[in-house]
Structures are given as C-alpha cells and as structure tokens.
Amino acid sequence: MMRAEKICKSFGENKVLNEFSHDFAEGKTTAILGASGCGKSTLLNILMGLLAPDSGEIIRESDRISAVFQENRLCENLTASANIRLVTGKRLTKAEIIAELSAVGLGDCSEKAVKTLSGGMKRRTALVRALLAEYDILFLDEPFKGLDSDTKNTVIAYAKAKIAGKTVVLVTHDLSECEQLADEIIRL
Q: What spatial distance separates the first Cα and last Cα of the chain, rounded to whole Å?
C-alpha cells in the first residue's frame, strides 16, 4: 500500500530523518510515536507528499488520502455539518451527518459556524470529516490533542470503529493512544 525507502530530511544543520524506511501494511494502523520535535510531523508530511525529502522515496499505490493536521484546517465560516458535507457530498444525509457528530458529542453544534466552536470542538469536527471522507490512506497528526480525558476516550472509541480495516498512519506523543489504536508502533 505504501512504502518509505531511505528517507532523509534536514533543516539546516538539524538532521531530522536519517534513512527512514518502512512498509506500511494495508488495512493496518501504524503509529509513529516520539517526543515533540523528533520529526514525526515532518515524516507524516513527507508521506502525504506535502514536503519533499532530501533523499529517498515514498511509494504509494493510491493518492486517495484523508488527513487531520495539527491545525484543524476547517472552513471557519461554514457550519460543522457543511464542513463534513465537503467530503461526503450527497453520500450521507443531513441526519446521518448529525448522527456522526453526535457520536463525538457535537450533535447540538452541527449547524453552528465553525468559527464559534471551541478548539476541542473544532478538533472533533476535523476528525469526523477526515474519517467520513473516501480514502485509501488516512493520516492523523496528533488528532486527539487538546481533548479532555473523557472526550478523548469517546473520540478514540469512535475513531477505532471507523478505522477498522483501513490503512492509517497516526502520529502522536501519547503511548496510550498507540496502544488503543495501533497495530504497530514505530518509535522515532
């Protein structure tokens, strides 16, 4: 499904990735675990094709990807449900979208403009949108950042059900997230 071959990346004198290689198994969740600043997000951006490596190669069988970035990247003037409709089109009804938002505690916010939502609400909206897109590979960059523990547990359970059997790359610094979601863990 996707392979990284001898990926190297430096920023000035700082070598972030040094000949990183890995085969990402189809239908499995691979977590990339490490401390802040170790290169997790850099690697994810290279895997997605948003950042070029200094050397090495990414081989992906599909360009149908979905992602949650560290920044939410939502359309602030649209409602939460309209943001989700951007990726679902007419595949889901309005009631189905509201049900998905309700599953992460946002049913009452579905018709509110994203700009009026809290950071945690935006995070959940971005995650629901990414999970409902049609994709072959899902990239998640710290998708549970900023969520309180009860909300985080609810959202992790929701995500776990949605990603079953899908190819996912999860970047996190939280080992418990890896243990709950990942089939394999790469430590950077």
A: 21
